[in-house]
Amino acid sequence: MLPTAQYTAFIKRRAAELGFMYCGISKAEFLEEEAPRLENWLNRNAHGKMAYMANHFDKRLDPRLLVDGAKSVVSLLLNYYPAEEDQQSNEPDTLKISKYAYGRDYHFVIKDKLKTLLADIQQEVGEVGGRVFVDSAPVMDKVWAKKSGLGWVGKSSNLIRPGTGSFFFIAELILDLDLEYDGPIKDYCGTCTKCVDACPTGAITEPYVVDGSKCISYFTIELKDQIPQEVAGKFGNWVFGCDICQDVCPWNRFAQTHNEPQFQAHPQFKHLRATDWQEITHELFTELFRQSAVKRTGYAGLQRNILFVTQTADAEASAGREAAESEG
């Protein structure tokens, strides 16, 4: 077996042992097709107030600017889909957060696994230069995952894998090591537009194009200002992130429960009702979300989101009662 094939097989085997669902590899090179798409997206201000999205434009498009002598991008998927009994209910008195934030912050979980994988590669191969990336550096993770055959980028802009769906995290190792490369797969969205039709804020402006500044996740996590009134009543019960486009995707009927203990939610979490959320104290917030991604919005930010959603719901209920009384 050639060294490249041997090293490739080792990396994929070790990734599976560390709990990653899938591992694909692509050549580290300039993303020529993505350059005009990224530039147009930024020029339309689709990143809203996420100023960091406009930073390091060249590095986003060329991994060789992130790792000297980079030759391979190793893309990995880690499942976070919770068991049905652990998911929040769809009852109107339940406020909801995205499934990815139920347990421990994925940045910590995945970085630990990636550092172990990189150390194991260096022990197996010898001197290998590389860096690990989890959603916090200028790396176009979905593009690299697509290039390495892990799925296709769907109309919702989520990476979708046949027979698996889209409830997974994407991470990368960029290495100065020659490996065997995988190729992309075809797009299986077909004529389906369920994600486009279901988005309550119209963030999916057209198939395959998402205006990030209109997304519920943007408003509830990224936006630090007050949420604009023009989107009042469009959030449903979402107070941190949103899973609507994934929940309606037919491919997610194949989603399997994750087996990562660190992604288990706090036992008290799924029993919270709207009144509990409204009365949440700083102490309870810290206990429930001690190492959760929810800490990103902070206690004050979560309070803002809860107030925005519940006040809108109360106003709509009051208007409904008044309308019924006037008809009566």
Structural Rg: 21 Å
Counting DSSP H or I runs of 4 or more residues, the number of helices is 11
Low-confidence stretches: none
Strand content: 5-15%
Features of the shown structure:
328 residues, two-stranded parallel ribbon, alpha+beta, 4-stranded antiparallel beta sheet, 4 iron, 4 sulfur cluster binding
Description:
The chain is an alpha+beta fold and 328 residues long. It has one domain. It is built from 11 helices and 10 strands. It has helices at residues 3-17, 34-43, 57-61, 106-125, 141-147, 194-198, 216-222, 244-247, 274-278, 282-288, 298-327, and strands at 22-27, 72-79, 96-97, 130-133, 152-153, 159-160, 168-175, 204-206, 209-210, 238-240. The strands form 4 sheets. Strands 1-2-7-4 form a 4-stranded antiparallel sheet, with helices on both faces. The longest helix has 30 residues, at 298-327.
Topology:
Blueprint: H1 3-17, E1 22-27, H2 34-43, H3 57-61, E2 72-79, E3 96-97, H4 106-125, E4 130-133, H5 141-147, E5 152-153, E6 159-160, E7 168-175, H6 194-198, E8 204-206, E9 209-210, H7 216-222, E10 238-240, H8 244-247, H9 274-278, H10 282-288, H11 298-327
Parallel strand pairs: 3-10
Antiparallel strand pairs: 1-2, 2-7, 4-7, 5-6, 8-9
